[in-house]
Amino acid sequence: MSRILDQRILFLVISFSASVWSTKVLSEWKKCGDPECEKGMSRVQATADYLGPDCRYLNFTTGEEIIVYSKLSRENENLWTGSKGKDFGYFPRDAVKVEEVLIEEEVEVLTKETDFLCLHEDKYTFE
């Protein structure tokens, strides 16, 4: 019985490690409205429907309003992060148009591992 339990624990550890390893870092840097990336940078409106490839992305339809909180920089400048209602995630900047700029200056900061995890109901999900 102990041997089966040890094998199951080992399997869970390997599965968890593989999941963490497979989480893609989309960029090492991002631009925000403040060092903590808590201030909204701009209010944008969707110009096209968008369905992201995984749970890290924000899905929306044409005309929806989104608040932008950060913009990936350097390696992947096309992706921004924002929210609509309770939903939060990445989306391509060319699928929206800026309606209102909310900050004067952008601050470039390093991304964190948690920037690239899925968040569902206040729990992180590893993809």
Q: What would you say this structure looks like, in words?
A:
The model is unreliable at 10-22 and 121-127 (pLDDT under 50). A hairpin with a 2-residue loop joins strand 8 (118-120) and strand 9. It is globular, with a radius of gyration of 18 Å. Strands 1, 2, 3, 4, 5, 6 and 7 form a seven-stranded antiparallel β-sheet that branches. It has a two-stranded antiparallel sheet with strand order 8-9. With 127 residues, it is α+β, with helices and mostly antiparallel strands. It has a domain at 26-105: SH3 type barrels, CATH 2.30.30. The chain is built from one helix and nine strands; from the N terminus they run H-E-E-E-E-E-E-E-E-E. It has one helix at residues 2-22; strands at 29-32, 42-46, 65-73, 79-84, 87-92, 96-101, 107-110, 118-120, 123-125. Residues 39-101 form the SH3 domain. Pfam families: SH3_2. It is a single-pass membrane protein. It comes from Pomatorhinus ruficollis. Residues 1-22 form the signal peptide.
Q: Can you summarize the main beta sheet?
A: 7 strands, antiparallel
Strand portion: 35-45%
Classification by helices and strands: alpha+beta
The CATH class of the domain at 26-105 is: Mainly Beta
Overall pLDDT, averaged?
83
The parts where pLDDT drops under 50 for at least 5 residues are 10-22, 121-127
- Rg calc: 18 Å
β-strand number: 9
Q: What string gives the helices and strands in order?
A: HEEEEEEEEE
CATH topology of the domain at 26-105: SH3 type barrels
What is the CATH architecture descriptor of the domain at 26-105? Answer: Roll
What is the helix fraction of residues, given as a range? 10-25%
Shape: globular
The span between the termini is 31 Å
Fourth-tier CATH superfamily name of the domain at 26-105 = SH3 Domains
Number of helices: 1
GO biological process, one term: vesicle cargo loading
Subcellular location: Endoplasmic reticulum membrane
Protein name: MIA2 protein
InterPro entries: cTAGE_MIA/OTOR (IPR051500), SH3-like_dom_sf (IPR036028), SH3_domain (IPR001452)
